[in-house]
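Need a sequence for this fold. Nothing fancy.
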């Protein structure tokens, strides 16, 4: 029987039982999946801990999960990728959130650049997308998701030399980038980064690279660079 995975709030590593009171999770378990007492589930707290348990009982739309074992999951990639993705159309950006999560990015920061047309996202929906993508891809953690910020603010929180995707420059050296533990990669909107954007990157001594001569859609470029960095 497939063991379904659910991210929960709070630390679960040392618990013998976990009380599930989140209505959306309880609804998913009881009404959608129709799991019953004795059925196995896996709970995750986002820190790499897998709590393998069984449904013990339900009380007033709450579930008690009894522990069978706890497992610590290691990261599948030694590279931590912080993706700074310029906002694009709603459905396309949500696809980027989903696929970047599946690939294993550590952090996602939506950014507003000179050519960005969409200036906001629903954070509740975005959080739901990355959480469900983490469950589906069997990650033991959830990438940290920031609220949208300006390019200037993004560069101020960038903790390493920025890697910028841009046309007309040398192709990315994936092997070299993967030798570093932390990579911060910036992907622009449709139309790419403007000259004013590039001036900001220049002041931060950013490394400007390309994925080749072909012109990729913004959402494709996001997934392509994450795939190269995380899957090799």
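Here you go.
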């Amino acid at each position: 029987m497939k063991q379904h995975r659910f991210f929960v709030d709070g630390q679960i590593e040392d618990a013998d039982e976990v009380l599930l009171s989140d209505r959306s999770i309880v609804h998913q378990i009881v009404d959608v999946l129709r799991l019953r007492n004795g059925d196995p589930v896996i709970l995750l707290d986002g820190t790499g801990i897998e709590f393998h348990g069984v449904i013990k009982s339900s009380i007033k739309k709450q579930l008690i999960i009894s522990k069978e074992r706890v497992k610590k999951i290691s990261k599948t990639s030694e590279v931590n990728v912080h993706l700074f993705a310029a906002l694009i159309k709603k459905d396309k950006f949500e696809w980027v959130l989903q696929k970047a999560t599946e690939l294993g990015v550590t952090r996602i920061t939506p950014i507003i650049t000179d050519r960005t047309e969409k200036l906001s996202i629903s954070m509740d929906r975005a959080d739901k997308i990355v959480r469900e993508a983490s469950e589906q891809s069997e990650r033991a953690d959830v990438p940290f998701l920031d609220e949208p910020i300006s390019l200037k603010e993004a560069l101020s929180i960038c903790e390493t030399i920025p890697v910028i995707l841009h046309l007309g420059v040398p192709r990315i050296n994936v092997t070299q980038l993967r030798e570093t533990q932390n990579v911060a990669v910036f992907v622009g909107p449709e139309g790419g980064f403007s000259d004013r954007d590039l001036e900001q990157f220049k002041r931060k001594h950013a490394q400007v690279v390309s994925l080749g001569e072909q012109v990729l859609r913004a959402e494709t470029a996001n997934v392509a660079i994450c795939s190269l960095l995380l899957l090799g």
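For context: The mean pLDDT is 89.
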